[in-house]
Amino acid sequence: MRTNIIRHENMMVSYDEVNGWAVIEVDGEVDAHTAPMIREGVIKLLDEGHRHFVLDLGFVTFMDSMGLGMIVAITKRVREREGALRFASVPSRVLRLFELSGLRGSYEFHASTAEATGSAPLPGSLAHWPNAPAD
Q1: Counting Cβ atoms within 10 Å, is residue 19 exposed (0-12), middle (13-18) or buried (19+)?
Q2: Which helix (H) or strand (E) holds 49?
Q3: Could you tell me what percentage of the chain is helix, strand and coil, using 3-state DSSP and rounding each to the nearest 5?
Q4: Does pLDDT of 61 surpass 80?
Q5: Phi, psi torsion values for 7, nearest 5 degrees
Q6: Regarding predicted confidence, which is higher, 90 or 134?
Q7: Residue at 31 is within a domain
Q8: With the CA atoms of 103, 48, 116 and 78 taken in that order, what torsion angle do they form, in degrees rounded to the nearest 10?
Q9: The domain containing residue 64 runs over which residues?
Q10: For residues 131 and 83, which has the higher predicted lDDT (pLDDT)?
Q11: Residue 120 and residue 6: Cα distance in Å, rounded?
């Protein structure tokens, strides 16, 4: 059952639990005004015991560097709890931010939420963050 955790005039965030993952769907703009709200929403889920997250960005209409900073902050918190973080349905314009920042290789990106949640989370999968593990 999808639960709304944030409602803002330019953005809405909800989450659902699938196969051991807290799937967070962001709908709208991720910027200086909304990024802190998303960070706090994820921290609240962490405090409730969730450790493994899929961030579904398929409905993100805009993301700036503040959004990327929020993702880095979330990653640090999830890593502290030996959790996992994956991304699903990332629009090409948002994926470009990851590429320009040099973080593209540091995360798992999946075409859909179903694909991202298809396998169970691996605790400690962020151990090598922000560098991609050696192949």
Answers
A1: middle
A2: none
A3: 35, 35, 35
A4: yes
A5: -130, 125
A6: 90
A7: yes
A8: 20
A9: 3-116
A10: 83
A11: 26
Helix axes 35-47, 65-80, angle to 10 degrees: 10
User: Which of 55, 101, 102, 45 has the alpha carbon at shortest distance from 77?
Assistant: 45
What is the total count of domains within the chain? Answer: 1
**What's 134's DSSP letter?**
P
Q: How many Å apart are CA 5 and CA 11, to the nearest integer?
A: 11
What is the rounded average pLDDT of the residues 32-45?
Answer: 93
Question: Distances in Å between the alpha carbon of 99 and those of 1, 10, 93, 95, 133?
Answer: 33, 25, 10, 6, 17
Residue with tokens 């995360």: 107
Residue 14: what pLDDT? Answer: 93
Q: Tell me, what CATH number does 27's domain have?
A: 3.30.750.24
Ranges of beta strands (E only) in the chain are 3-8, 11-18, 21-30, 52-63, 84-88, 108-110
Residue 134 lies in a domain: no
**Which pairing describes strands 3-8 and 11-18: parallel, antiparallel, or unpaired?**
antiparallel
* pLDDT for position 134: 42
Residue 19 scores a pLDDT above 60: yes
pTM of the model: 0.88
State residue 131's pLDDT score: 64
